[in-house]
Structure formats: structure tokens, C-alpha cells
Specification:
By secondary structure, the protein is of the alpha+beta class. It is built from two helices and eight strands. The chain has a five-stranded mixed sheet with strand order 1-2-3-5-6. Helices cover 36% and strands 22% of the residues. It has one domain. Strand 2 and strand 3 form a beta hairpin.
Length: 171
């Protein structure tokens, strides 16, 4: 009986190079898309944290107004809003007046403001040119107009510049 010859054929060097090149291109596209998703997630987290602090300030303002404790309402503008939350964000570092690490929240007592240092800032733009979002604690009257003294109805956070992340305005 004659023995049949087997022709085992593997990949040629050219085929292997083409496959490796395709995998490299796909990986590059996937990584750039992943980075964009990380930036979108960071922007959404910033918006959620600001909304939570605004809600906490509004609830506290309502409590003080209902109790006719207007002197405490005035001092609310100088209090750290992170302390009103049940639990501050995991990346809240504390009170500082300078030296901010990217990806962290801070309360700046000298300005009565909260600050977030941007980590993924390729799509971030700021009216003041920096990579830091800053929100001031502001007192407002019943009509929503900023007020310093008498007539203070509630305290909220206002962005100190025009912040945009991938075209979306962060307020």
C-alpha cells in the first residue's frame, strides 16, 4: 500500500504580518474609544457630584428657612458642602487652598468654593483656560438672584467660568 503524502500548510510570513497589523489597528481604535468613554464617565461623575451637593444645599437651606434660622442660613455660604452629603465622593481629598492633584475634589475655604481638578481633559475646555472646575457657594433670594445680605432664601453652587466637556456644558 502506498503511503499518501500529506501536505500540511501553515501560515506564511506575509499572512502572519497582515493579521498582526490588523490586530494592531483594531487595538488602537479600541483604546482611543475607551479613552473617550473614560472622559465621558468622568464628566458624568462631576455632574452627578455637583447635582448632589446642590440638592444637599437646597435641603439644608429649606430646613433653616423652615426653622426661621436666618443667621445660620448666612453662614451656610461659608460651610463645606461635602459635609452635608451622607458620604463624600471617594475622590474628595479635603480642604486646601492650593496644590490640586488631577481627578480629585477639594473644598477651598479661602474662596468658599469647591474645586475639581480634571484628569481626562482632552475634550475639556474652560472659559478661564485652566483644567480645573470651580463652583462658588452663592446665596440667592426667592427670585433666584444672587444676594449677599437680607433676602437670602437659599444657598447653591454656581460655576465660576464656562466649562465644556466634549461640547456639553457643565453647570
Amino acid at each position: 500500500m502506498p503511503i499518501a503524502k500529506r501536505h500540511c500548510r501553515g501560515f506564511t510570513l506575509f499572512e502572519l504580518i497582515v493579521v498582526i497589523s490588523l490586530v494592531g489597528v483594531l487595538a488602537t481604535v479600541a483604546l482611543s474609544r475607551f479613552r473617550g468613554l473614560q472622559e465621558e464617565a468622568e464628566a458624568a461623575a462631576v455632574e452627578a457630584n455637583v447635582a448632589a451637593m446642590r440638592a444637599a444645599l437646597l435641603i439644608r437651606s429649606t430646613e433653616l428657612a423652615a426653622g426661621n434660622r436666618w443667621s445660620e442660613m448666612a453662614s451656610l455660604r461659608r460651610q463645606n458642602p461635602f459635609l452635608l452629603l451622607e458620604a463624600p465622593p471617594g475622590n474628595y481629598v479635603g480642604e486646601r487652598n492650593e496644590s490640586w492633584a488631577p481627578g480629585n475634589w477639594y473644598y477651598v475655604p479661602a474662596e468658599a468654593a469647591i474645586l475639581y481638578a480634571v484628569r481626562q481633559g482632552d475634550g475639556f475646555s474652560s472659559g478661564d483656560g485652566g483644567h480645573v472646575l470651580r463652583f462658588a457657594l452663592v446665596g440667592k433670594n426667592a427670585l433666584g438672584m444672587p444676594v449677599e445680605g437680607p433676602g437670602l432664601a437659599y444657598v447653591t453652587l454656581l460655576a465660576t467660568a464656562d466649562y465644556r466637556w466634549n461640547g456639553r456644558r457643565i453647570q
